Amino acid sequence: NMERTSSIRRKAIARQNKGEVMIAGEQLRLRLHDGKLIKDRRYHLRTYPNCFVAEELIDWLVGHKEAPDRATAVCLMQHLMDHDILHHVCDKRPVLKDAKLLYRFRKDDGTFPFNREVKIFMRGQRLYEHLIGDKKSILQLREERGVAYQRSFSGCQLIDWLLHNGEAESRCRGLELCRALQEHGIIQHVAKKHDFFDSGLLYQFCINFRRRRRLSALLSESEQGNNEDVAASTPEDSNADSPPQEDNSAFQSVRLSKDLKQVTSGRRGSLNSPQLQSSGCPPLVQLSSVRCNPKSVLRRNFTCEELFAPGAPLIKRVLTVIGDAMGWGFVVRGMAPCYVQAVDPGSPSAAAGVKVQQFVCQVNGQCVLYLDYRTVTRLVMTGPRTVVLEVLEPLE
């Protein structure tokens, strides 16, 4: 039993380290968007949406004291590449090079891999955010065996909360979820002595999702946890920046831009693998073959007039999406009209009923039918956290 507990803890620590990389990568992505380093760029008469120049990023990291020198900055970004946080726009370079080469965050083109481990981690983020923001939060100063623990909760209280908020169908399901969160290093017993039980034992979140991460800490965590060697250079490839064989329409991930110095989100529910692939996301394996601009989920292009033609097989829906600290969790594409290209599994948008192939008609009461994806994205990102979408959904 002691060996099993020790093994679970080791796995939890390893998963915590991976989670820290995800959080640090997302925080960096949002900062680079705010700093305009991530933008559409032209190369050989092709437009590459939402990408950055590696050399400019290294300048930025050193200038903002995120890395002491360029070599360390390259190692940090390579660490993010190794964890599928970012990639070369054509997926022809497995390593990041300090040169005028284009790279992109996978969150910005919908190719981020949503395996079971990531889904559970993001679910934990979401629960954490909801619990922290709850005025009557169960996270309180509590005592166990004469020791007081900040922001702790009993096992039975958390399961009660999950049931009350529709996060679990039954106490059995709630217990399964909590044990999965513990196995993935998201929650733990306050004294690290017990597995999760539906009882009065006290537990805490292991991760402060709101804490600002220092990128330089990633390498030390990696060395301590996995002794990973991070590659920092690669032989030159004269054709490394050849344009991809895809259309150049943009693939923009809608995310919050204000009040986001931290990444705190989780996911409710999930899409299965075929759905992910059909929505432009890659399969859960073979990420090296992912194309830089996933194929459109639409079978053909539509005009605004077609959408409102008599007898059009579409139904109007009004959806209210309450964004969390990571954003809303959907991807829009298209020049006019815009449509939903992908939805993050279990995100606020998925919970609200946002689906792929829906056409976006209004954002917070403003007609957006004749606006391109950039303008629609800007409306969402600069608006309130609660977004009301009017969409047209194809009839099944």
Automatic annotation (TrEMBL):
Report the Pfam families cross-referenced here: DEP, PDZ_6
Gene3D superfamilies assigned to the protein according to its UniProt record, in alphabetical order: 2.30.42.10, Winged helix-like DNA-binding domain superfamily/Winged helix DNA-binding domain
GO CC terms: plasma membrane
| Sequence ranges assigned to domain DEP in this UniProt record | 24-107, 149-207
GO BP terms: G protein-coupled receptor signaling pathway; intracellular signal transduction; regulation of signaling
Q: Where's the PDZ domain? A: 318-395
GO MF term set: GTPase activator activity; guanyl-nucleotide exchange factor activity
State where composition is biased (Polar residues): 235-253
Protein name, UniProt field: Si:dkeyp-97e7.9
Query: Which organism does this sequence originate in?
Result: Cyclopterus lumpus
